[in-house]
Amino acid sequence: MLADIEKVLLTEEQLRTRIRELGRNITADYRDKPLLALCILRGSFVFFADLVRSVGIPVEVAFMHAASYFADTQSSGEVQLPDEAMLAVGGKNVLIVEDIVDSGRTLNALKETLLGKNVSSLKIATLLDKPERRVVDIDVDYCGFQVPDEFVVGYGLDYNQRYRNLPYIGILKREIYN
């Protein structure tokens, strides 16, 4: 797998340090409020686990599938939320935890769905943000890192279900996905 990586963009230590900072910020913001952290599967699972462990207050957790890539390197424009009917979020302070915000389509669809379920509050945390790729205006409340418009993998992010287990974020060589 290492031979497929053009460049390490974010090291394990950089990730660990920034996620602890995000955890402290979330702890301060929700100190007197119950919090439901919603992990968007699959790419967010590594970030989610580290983030909730760095939050210093009780956190309820939930998991949801959301898809728009479908084994490609760009969003299809179609967003699927197959677990949406199972979410019991009414009256809760919800923190959506996403791996990467790219076009914004997935988060926008999810945000609209959750707001329709009468959440008490809704915020978004993302490990990575690619503002250059945004086609839908979406605000991110907690951002780990802004990254360039490159195809990144590792630390939960994948290409065709590979590279999720890399302990860092790397730029995937173009010849792998072209």
Automatic annotation (TrEMBL):
InterPro entries: HGPRT (IPR050408), Hxn_phspho_trans (IPR005904), PRTase-like (IPR029057), PRTase_dom (IPR000836)
Cofactor names: Mg(2+)
Biological process annotations from GO: GMP salvage; guanine salvage; hypoxanthine metabolic process; IMP salvage; purine ribonucleoside salvage
Group of enzyme by EC: transferase
Residue intervals of the Phosphoribosyltransferase domain: 13-159
GO molecular function, one term: hypoxanthine phosphoribosyltransferase activity
Primary location class: cytoplasm
Pathway: Purine metabolism; GMP biosynthesis via salvage pathway; GMP from guanine: step 1/1; Purine metabolism; IMP biosynthesis via salvage pathway; IMP from hypoxanthine: step 1/1
A cellular component annotation (GO) from this entry: cytosol
Catalytic activity: IMP + diphosphate = hypoxanthine + 5-phospho-alpha-D-ribose 1-diphosphate; GMP + diphosphate = guanine + 5-phospho-alpha-D-ribose 1-diphosphate
SUPFAM superfamilies with a match to the protein in the record: PRTase-like
Protein origin, superkingdom: Bacteria
Protein location: Cytoplasm
Keywords: Cytoplasm, Glycosyltransferase, Magnesium, Metal-binding, Nucleotide-binding, Purine salvage, Transferase
Enzyme Commission number, as recorded: 2.4.2.8
NCBIfam families registered for this protein in UniProt: HGPRTase (TIGR01203)
Family: Belongs to the purine/pyrimidine phosphoribosyltransferase family.
Role, per record: Purine salvage pathway enzyme that catalyzes the transfer of the ribosyl-5-phosphate group from 5-phospho-alpha-D-ribose 1-diphosphate (PRPP) to the N9 position of the 6-oxopurines hypoxanthine and guanine to form the corresponding ribonucleotides IMP (inosine 5'-monophosphate) and GMP (guanosine 5'-monophosphate), with the release of PPi.
Protein name: Hypoxanthine phosphoribosyltransferase
Species assigned in the record: Pseudoramibacter alactolyticus ATCC 23263
